[in-house]
Every structure is written in C-alpha cells, then in structure tokens.
Amino acid sequence: MRIGLVSYRCKDNDISFNMSQIERALRDTAGKVDLLCFGETFLQGFNSLCWDYEVDKDIALAKESDEIKQLQRWGEQYQVAILTGYIEKEADALYSSCITISEERIINNYRRISKGWKEYTITDEHYQEGTFVGSFCLCGEKITIALCGDLWDYPERFKTDGLLIWPVYVTFTTDDWKQVESHEYARQSFLAAKDVLMINPIDIEDQNHGGSSYFHNGKLVNRTAYDEEQIIIVQTNVC
Predict the structure, then answer these.
(1) Closest CA to 152 of 201, 110, 100, 117
(2) What DSSP assignment string belongs to 181-232?
(3) Which DSSP state fits 149?
(4) In this predicted structure, what is the pLDDT of residue 210?
(5) What pLDDT score does 228 carry?
(6) DSSP 8-state secondary structure symbol assigned to residue 90
(7) Does the domain made of 2-235 have the CATH classification 3.40.50.720?
(8) Which residue numbers in the chain have pLDDT < 70?
(9) Strand pairing category for 93-102 and 2-7
(10) β pairing state of 93-102 and 105-111
(11) pTM
(12) Residues 177-190: pLDDT tens digits?
C-alpha cells in the first residue's frame, strides 16, 4: 500500500481553507497513493476551540456533516482513502477524533484517549475522551491510530504488529525538532510498533513547523523538510 503523509498548512477556524488543502493534496497525489494522512484536528485547526461549549459546539463537526460527506465524495472521485484529525461532535459531547474514509464509507472513527488536547482544568463534561483502542484493515494492512499524547501516556495500549499511524500537533522550534524527533519520538514510537507514520501539520500563526516522519524499528527513516508544504509517500509491504 502507498501512503501519503501530508504536511500542509492549516488555519484555525478556517474549515474552508483546510478542506481546500485536502483537495489540493488529493490532486497532487492523484493515482500515486492509496491513503492520504493529515495531522491532528486538521479540519478545524488545533487552536480552534475557546473552551466555551456554546461556542465550541458550532465549531465541531458530526460524522454526518456536509464536510465529512464532501471528504467521502472526494475519496470516491480520486479513488483514495483519506485519514484526518478533526474536532468531533456526537450528541452533546466533543472529542479530538481521527476519521478514515474509504470508497465513500467511514471505516474507522478513533477518539483520542489522552486528555492533553483540551484545557482540562477549565473544561466541563462536554469535552470527552474516547475509551476504545483498536485496529482496522485497509488494503490488507492492519492499521492502528494514536493521536499525539496517546502514545506518550498509554504506549502499551497501542502495541501492534501492524502499522501505527500517529497524527500529532506539536510546536517545537526547528532546532528542537531535530533533537527530539530522531531520538525521543523515534524511541517512543518503537514502544508500540515497528512501523510508525507521524503527521504534523504546519501552522504559521502558532509557530508550528510541521513535518511528517516515517519511523522503522525506532529509527527515523524519512521525513519532510521543516516549514515546507510537502508530502512523503511510504510504500508498505502489503498490496
């Protein structure tokens, strides 16, 4: 399976722009990949919430929203699966989630289990974490998803003999990234899987330098350039 890791710019509270970035990546990789992956909360931007539920509930998206339906249509149009992070609304609850769409169907919707996505000292019961960690199959590949702090707080829960996809939102200086990525992040990834794909979007306003990385056996194998909108394609051994 050919997997594209997309480090494109996203904007807080600008779903229209972020959707256009997804469509751009679909055009850029047409016929070249089987799955395109985007970072944590890419659809709305990581800093889109203000922790006032009456405001935030209108920023979050249900799985049945027009935006998700558009992703389903694009997946069919470009014949590619799409994986992206987003702020999800289900009934009265909000989650940091990651949705995977294939052939116009939602085949997985993972909800982050660690609480670092929110300002948990001031948020109420509407802001919740998921409870379930599991795997799904795509193109014959066994895939598990962890969102950002999940892999630091609960690495044992994500241990898999398949592929681990790790959308994150992490703001380090470029110099710090060069130090921590090939050491701390690579080693942490190996606690869960031999093959880990990490996707971090670019957010200029938040000084997020972005970058997507491929870790194998706890070593950094490949990554995008810092501060550059790029896609790297990883070829797995299946399909």
Answers:
(1) 117
(2) IIIIIHHHHHTT-SEEEEEE-BBTTTTB--EEEEEETTEEEEEPPTTS-EEE
(3) T
(4) 73
(5) 87
(6) E
(7) no
(8) 206-208, 238-239
(9) unpaired
(10) antiparallel
(11) 0.95
(12) 777 777 889 999 99
